[in-house]
Amino acid sequence: MARSRPRNTEPPRPKVAVLATGGTIAGAQAPGSRRGYKPGIFSIESLIAAAPGIESLARLETAHVANIGSQDMGEAVWTRLARRIQASIDDPGVSGVVVTHGTDTMEETAYFLDLVLHGSKPVVLVGAMRPATAMSADGPMNLYNAVATAAHPEAGGRGVLVVANDEIHHAREVTKTNTTLIGTFKSSHRGLAGLVSSARIHFYGAARRGKAGTTGFALPRRGRLPRVDIVYAHAGMGPDLIRAAVRAGARGLVIAGVGNGNIATPALKAATEAARAGVAVVRSSRTGGGIVERNVEVDDDWHGFIAADELNPQKARILLMLGLTRTRDPFLLQQMFYAY
Fold first, then answer.
1. What integer pLDDT is reported at residue 300 of this predicted model?
2. What is the end-to-end Cα distance of the chain in Å, rounded?
3. Most buried by CB count within 10 Å: which residue of 5, 86, 103, 261?
4. Which range has the worst mean pLDDT, 105-114, 181-190, 260-269?
5. What does the alpha-carbon distance between residue 328 and residue 318 come to, in Å, rounded to a whole number?
6. What crossing angle do the helices spanning 75-90 and 106-116 adopt, rounded to 10°?
7. Total Cβ atoms within 10 A of residue 104
């Protein structure tokens, strides 16, 4: 009597799209140097090869979207990247997406994607603080953990995530806080989305505002969004930078104010002039934490300003750019800052 062969009971590996944009994670040091390096040298296939066992986590589909240091990220690359990610999200055969990215502007890219992508599949950004050729490079483990996170059945519906240093962050909460430390990313307001250690994942509660993938913001045509400038406040600040930004064509301004989003009287006058001329003016804070509330030290109703609430200046700029594609009404823009 013939014996039947035992069936393979292991579930099929999920498929994860891995999209490369360059950054330190793909960087190489100059020969004989332990400091200087050039980002975006290595291919995504090389990064995967440097993370043994990663292909046991998922079937990987790779593509290069850009090859730049993240200081050169901007609306055109964001739009191209978002369209490529959305195509993967819409593919029924893909379970999740990982994006390799430089750390300098990772929080901005993550928040932009969080606002414009549609769907509940996990999207995970990952980078490194040390280039691929450095002693004890952090990229391979970060990438390994990012793929594990994107392939996890509980990762969906949490919005865009950032994985670094065994931590999982929500896009809206995460900020780079140190120039060189491995543990540079922090989520100060609502805390971590979870922890991941050698692909072992522990998710915490959802800490984001709104519902993932449902903001309704549309991608701009040709990668163009309304111009929004950030103006950094300081002691003795005058009106010149604000007026120069308006003359240069800014449709929105984010003030990285002192304390609770405050600016010196001459600058406040210039910002009020801008708001009354139809420029959207958002008061944020340069402090790195806390909430900028309406009508505390500044009468926002009278000046026509918008309070950034929890968003730091760089994320306030992104929300304002997208918000201005819908409306210039300060009241409606304020509601977006409360919602997202």
1. 97
2. 66
3. 261
4. 181-190
5. 15
6. 50
7. 19
Q: Is it the case that residue 222 has pLDDT exceeding 80?
A: no
Q: Give, in words, the CATH class of 227-339.
A: alpha beta
φ, ψ (nearest 5 deg) of residue 157: 75, 10
The pair of three-digit structure tokens given for residue 13, joined into one six-digit string: 């590996």
Which residue has 């360059």 as its token pair?
22
Other beta carbons within 10 angstroms of residue 64's beta carbon come to 15
Report strand pairing: 15-22 vs 59-68: parallel
Report the CATH architecture of 15-203: 3-Layer(aba) Sandwich (3.40)
Q: How far does CA 10 lie from the centroid of its chain?
A: 35
Q: Over the Cα atoms of the chain, what is R_g? A: 22
Residue 36's pLDDT is 78
Q: Report pLDDT for 150.
A: 98
Write the DSSP symbol of residue 144. Answer: H
Does the pLDDT value for residue 192 go beyond 90? Answer: yes
Alpha-carbon distance 105 to 103, whole Å?
6
Query: Is the pLDDT at 259 greater than 90, yes or no?
Result: yes
Do the first three CATH levels of 15-203 and 227-339 match, i.e. the same topology? Answer: yes
Q: Which residue has the tokens 């603080």?
A: 129
pLDDT at 205: 77
Which residues are marked as active site?
24
Q: What residue segments make up the domains of the chain, in order of their start?
A: 15-203, 227-339
**Do 25 and 126 meet the contact criterion of CB atoms below 8 Å apart?**
yes
Separation of alpha carbons 281 and 297, rounded Å? 16
Band (263; pLDDT cuts 50, 70, 90): very high
Q: Distance from CA of residue 298 to its chain's centroid? A: 29
In this structure, the strands spanning 28-29 and 15-22 are: unpaired
Mean pLDDT of 237-262: 98
Q: Which of 163, 196, 191, 317 is nearest to 253 (CA)?
A: 317
